[in-house]
Amino acid sequence: MKTFIALCLCGLSIPLRAQTPLRTFTSPDGIFQFKYPDVLVDCMSARKQEKGIGSSVPESCASQGSICGGMGSEESTVACFAYPKERFKDSPHFVAATFYVSEILSAKGEEVCLKGSPDWLVIKSEAEATTINHIAFKAFEIGDSWTGGGQSGPAYRTFHNGKCYELGIQNVFSRAEYDPGTVKEFTKKDSSEVEARLRQAFNSFVFLK
User: Fold this and answer.
1) How many H helices and E strands in the chain?
2) Mean pLDDT (whole number) for 150-179
3) Mind listing the pLDDT tens digit for each residue in 41-64?
4) Which of 34, 56, 93, 168 has the most CB atoms within 10 Å of its CB?
5) Residue 78 has pLDDT above 70, yes or no
6) Which of 48, 36, 68 is nearest to 172 (CA)?
């Protein structure tokens, strides 16, 4: 797990296919902020427009599992950005990948917040303490599984000004079998590209007040 954390904190060192402009996201209440590559899809804005005429949630933001939150937590998702699925449209093993920030409504105190959610399927048995931009977090590795696929990724909890916040990255994949040569492989290089883009947002997260 310590190795995993080290890799996470060095996410910006992963080579990117091409540098893209960064945009700034500030929470509606002005509490936190982060910068994200403009290649990412804003899932929350898309969902707000879902009921509009002729609108729909982008495929990048859709999955069988919960990709804009920590699966099972009583939460209010404030931000959720997805890697564009169309970039791997010929690689069906890649389903979705997101970076999200949520407020955990059910965690009223620091102790409860930093224990994580009792409804999680925790992949790692113990949480690790880590610091990002001078913010202390407890880091968990969580996931979910279903027939033909699943998802996994890190979830980070911190307690700030009386509220519990969770930052996470979720990667959704398909286990479907395909005849050799009929689909394009989702490679380690592809995975590094996706991870690096999402980590740019994660590593820039700061509280403003």
Assistant:
1) 4, 11
2) 93
3) 999 987 665 555 445 678 999 887
4) 168
5) yes
6) 68
Which residue, chain included where needed, has tokens 């080290």?
6
Report the sign of the C-alpha dihedral through residues 75, 76, 82, 86, in that order.
positive
Instruction: Give dist(CA 197, CA 82) in Å, integer.
Output: 10
In 26-84, which residue ranges form alpha helices assigned H by DSSP? 43-48
State both tokens at 101: 């920030």
Q: What's the chain's average pLDDT?
A: 86
pLDDT average, residue stretch 122-133:
86
Q: Specify whether the CB–CB gap between 125 and 153 falls below 8 A.
A: no
As its CATH architecture, domain 2-207 has 3-Layer(aba) Sandwich (3.40)
| CA–CA gap between residue 103 and residue 93 (Å, rounded) | 30
